[in-house]
Every structure is written in C-alpha cells, then in structure tokens.
Amino acid sequence: MIGKTFAEIANYVAVAAGKPLTFISCCFLILVWAASGPIFGFSDTWQLIINTSTTIITFLMVFLIQNTQNRDGVAIQAKLDELLRVSEAKNAFIGIEHLPEEEVEKFRAQCEAAAKEAGKLLEDRAARRSKTRRSTSKPTKAKARA
C-alpha cells in the first residue's frame, strides 16, 4: 500500500517538476528572492533562506526522480522480456511503469518463468529431432553404399 502511494506521489512530482510552468515559477521565486536582497540588507538570514530551500528541494527530488527512473527501468526491461518471449505482446504490460515496483517485479518474474519453460520445450524438441535424425540417417548411409 505504501509503495503504491509513494509511486503515485513520485509520478505526480516528477511530471510536475518537468513542466515549463514549474521552471518559470522557480525562476520567478529566485528573482523575487534576489530583488528582496536590498530590503533585508543581503543578510545571512536572507542567504540562508535560499540555501536551505534549494537544499531541501534538491534532496527530496533526488529520491523521487531516482524512484521514477528505477520503476521505468524495471518496467522497460519487463516489456522487452515480454516482446522477446512472444510474438504478440500482452496488453497487460502496457502502462506497468505506473505500478509499484513490487507489482512490476511480479510481471518480470512471470516472464522469466515462461522463458525458462519455453527454453526447456526447445531443448526437448531439439533432443528429439537429433534422435530422429540419427536413427533415420543410418539406413540412408547403408543405401548409399549398396
């Protein structure tokens, strides 16, 4: 539950942080802060306000952006695994980057299990074909000699 809530908050903040209006708002706040310097006599408190604000925002954004990138990376890998596993991808994989990391890992585990099963089937088929070729190739050699 907490993972899903955090994922939703992280998505919202990451999307909001990437909008032009957010950038313009931040620039405006910096200009207001800079313009207020003479009013406050460029005091240590005046400098501390911007330093503390930007440090806190940067600190929090690092974790939110990292969480978003981690989920996106895992989701992309799971989608690629699904595309490699089958010729027609399941529609259930569309949008999994918006799920909490635990749910994306479940999708990924399903892909890995299916790939292992498919690998076993391919190995079995290859072994049967190899056996069939060996058993049918001996009589043809005998016919060729005769």
UniProtKB/TrEMBL annotation:
Region entry Disordered, spans: 122-146
Top-rank taxon, per record: Bacteria
Coiled coil location: none
One biological process term in Gene Ontology: transmembrane transport
InterPro entries: Iron_permease_Fet4
Biased composition (Basic residues): 128-146
Keyword Transmembrane helix: yes
Transmembrane residue ranges: 12-34, 46-65
Pfam families, A to Z: Iron_permease
Keywords of the record: Membrane, Transmembrane, Transmembrane helix
Protein name in the entry: Iron permease
